[in-house]
Design a protein that fits this description.
- This protein is α+β, with helices and mostly antiparallel strands.
- It has a single domain, classed as Aldehyde Oxidoreductase, domain 3 (Alpha-Beta Complex), CATH 3.90.1170.
- The protein is 31% helix and 37% strand.
- The chain is built from 3 helices and 8 strands.
- Strands 1, 2, 3, 4, 5, 6, 7 and 8 form an 8-stranded mixed β-sheet that branches.
- β5 and β6 form a beta hairpin.
- α2 runs antiparallel to α3.
- The protein is globular, with a radius of gyration of 16 Å.
- It starts with 9 loop residues before the first strand and ends with a strand.
């Protein structure tokens, strides 16, 4: 079996709605797809200790993180009958209301995309070394705790 190349999933800054729309449009020619499911992670204006988050600055051990994304991708394809999958994660500053994670799965059948997408997103949150520094309105910051 041919070993698949590890992809770089990182994009600098927020993931734009134009990029998301173009990604969806590219799949309209793939007539063996019956369902898509999309997860969009958006930066929230959380209030922590009376201070409001205005952005998150994402960093990662990129080589290690890309390897983990690759492992999650391969495990998902082994577990679910997917036609394709795309994962993109932001690096750098992403402001509140902007998209920082875009996961897109496609399959011939709808039920599969729901299960596969939840599996992928939970695995990303649990296993990928991406770190977010929450930036507050007063320009102080703290490392984000995943929940």
């Amino acid at each position: 079996m041919e070993k698949k190349k590890t992809k770089n999933v990182f994009v600098q800054g927020a993931i734009s709605s134009e990029f998301i729309g173009q990604s969806i449009a590219k799949h309209q020619t793939k007539t063996n797809i019956g369902a898509h499911n999309i997860f969009l992670g958006q930066v929230r204006a959380d209030i922590i200790d009376g201070k409001t988050v205005t952005a998150i600055d994402y960093t990662a051990y990129e080589e290690m993180a890309n390897q983990k994304f690759h492992e999650i991708r391969e495990a998902t394809f082994a577990k679910y009958d997917l036609t394709c999958m795309h994962i993109y994660h932001s690096l750098g500053q992403v402001n509140i209301g902007e998209i920082c994670l875009f996961v897109f799965v496609s399959s011939p059948r709808r039920k599969i995309v729901f299960k596969a997408l939840e599996y992928v997103v939970e695995a990303i949150k649990a296993d990928v070394p991406v770190f977010g520094k929450e930036i507050f309105e007063d320009q102080t910051h703290q490392w984000k705790q995943n929940t």
